[in-house]
Specification:
The protein is α+β, with helices and mostly antiparallel strands. The protein has three domains: about 120 residues, conserved putative lor/sdh protein from methanococcus maripaludis s2 fold (Beta Barrel), CATH 2.40.420; about 80 residues, RNA polymerase II/Efflux pump adaptor protein, barrel-sandwich hybrid domain (OB fold (Dihydrolipoamide Acetyltransferase, E2P), Beta Barrel), CATH 2.40.50; about 100 residues, Orthogonal Bundle (Helix Hairpins). Helix content is about 25%, strand content about 35%. The protein contains three helices and 22 strands. Strands 3-12-15-14-13-16 form a six-stranded antiparallel barrel. Strands 2-17-20-19-18 form a five-stranded antiparallel beta sheet. A hairpin with a 2-residue loop joins β18 and β19. α2 runs antiparallel to α3. The protein is elongated, with a radius of gyration of 39 Å. The two termini are about 35 Å apart.
């Protein structure tokens, strides 16, 4: 199996295609609605069409950091002129308050932390004053002891007076040491109290949910009175002033995709063409689909392109030397009893009824969302492309055009 075929196999496996039952199943009633496509020749090969999903340039799940009951949600004026809660589709600006949880507990905590900080600072100032006085007394005791020692050495002072001066110096130095230790301990308490105030004020600030950017609201998951925990997502916001068209490219085409290449996008839901640049190419293939994700960034100042829209684009492909019969990839299923093979359901007319018949096929190369068929099908035969995993061999179907 070639590398191209391996990519096709993995792509089909990722689509969740399941084997169908054998022909033992007879007609079912009512008929299963299905979509079909005719086997056709793929000739030009100069361009390959891809489907892309439009996604926001930036999307943020805005979550609460502080838990509690939701107290308020931002009020805006609706199209009917009435004031209502912010909802999906509304625009918000950077820094705008979107919701708040009840702040009483956080306010009390912040006030208590500030009171404890003020008390710690007052105690520190008192300890510093005591240290200053202890140091002054110690300095004086040092002078008195020096004078007493000189007099004692000249035999002009009694031993008792010398010992008394020495005792006063020792006592004052001990007081200085104790006062210094107390100041150090209170400084540590002040530092801890300051950190507690910062934490309490941060928790109070985090009780308010603010928009980090100019954006549109994609969804709102809360109501007034909702009990939220830290990490609960309240809003999903998106910046759609620019959008990205994301599509998958097989390994056979990845070398033709280059960063910075201009790309034109069209969408059935929006008139006109939109031009952008290829701004990101995945360095590795998706482990399930074996395709490389490619992003095209498109300016969207008027916000015509909405997230979720399916767009279409084309990439230059290799020109074929002869026409190749192709079918949509969505038509391919796994045949019963052969997990390594491929099959399709062909719609056959029998006694005025449309029946689904499984047909084993040999596949060729992939061309975007189409795949070549080497054997098993004839041109113009109708294969089931929508609902292929919902029918079984011999079932009656209804073709939905």
């Amino acid at each position: 199996m070639t590398k191209k075929r391996m990519a096709i196999v993995a792509f089909l496996a990722s689509a969740g295609v399941m084997p169908n039952c054998s022909r033992e199943v007879t007609y079912q009633n009512p008929p299963t609605p299905v979509g079909v496509a005719a086997v056709q020749n793929y000739e030009a090969g100069s361009e390959i069409r891809y489907s892309a999903s439009i996604v926001p340039y930036t999307q943020v799940n805005l979550a609460f950091k502080s838990g509690g009951y939701v107290h308020s949600i931002r009020q805006v004026k609706g199209v009917d002129g009435r004031i209502r809660d912010l909802q999906q589709g509304d625009c918000v600006s950077s820094g705008m308050i979107l919701a708040q949880v009840r702040q009483d507990d956080y306010t009390i905590g912040a006030d208590q932390a500030k009171k404890q900080l003020a008390q710690a600072k007052w105690s520190l100032e008192s300890a510093r004053s005591q240290l200053v006085m202890a140091e002054a007394s110690s300095n004086q005791a040092q002078l008195d002891f020096t004078r007493a020692r000189n007099l004692y050495e000249s035999q002009s002072l009694t031993k008792a007076d010398y010992d008394a001066a020495k005792a006063r110096l020792d006592a004052d130095q001990a007081s200085v040491s104790a006062a210094t230790s107390q100041v150090d301990a209170l400084q540590a308490q002040v530092g801890a109290a300051e950190e507690a105030v910062k934490a309490a004020e941060l928790s109070l600030a985090d009780a308010t949910l603010k928009s980090p950017m100019d954006a549109v609201v994609l969804s709102r998951a809360i109501e007034v009175g909702t009990l939220v925990a830290a990490g609960t997502v309240g809003f999903v916001l998106a910046d759609i002033s620019s959008v990205k068209a994301v599509f998958g490219v097989p390994d056979t085409m990845i070398e033709r995709v280059k960063l910075g290449t201009a790309q034109t996008i069209t969408a059935e839901a929006v008139r006109g063409e939109f031009k952008g640049l290829i701004t990101a190419i995945s360095p590795s293939a998706d482990p399930k689909s074996r395709t490389f994700s490619v992003e095209v960034t498109i300016p969207n100042p008027r916000e015509h392109l909405k997230p979720g829209i399916i767009a279409t684009l084309t990439l230059a492909g290799e020109r074929l030397t002869s026409p190749v019969p192709v079918i949509p990839l969505s038509a391919v299923v796994r045949p019963a009893g052969n997990p390594e093979g491929y099959a399709v359901f062909v719609v056959e007319d029998q006694a005025g009824k449309s029946l689904a018949r499984m047909r084993n096929v040999e596949l060729g190369e992939a061309y975007g969302s189409l795949i070549g068929v080497k054997a098993g099908l004839s041109l113009s035969e109708l294969v089931i492309t929508r609902g292929a995993t919902l029918v079984k061999d011999g079932w009656q179907v209804q073709v939905i055009r």
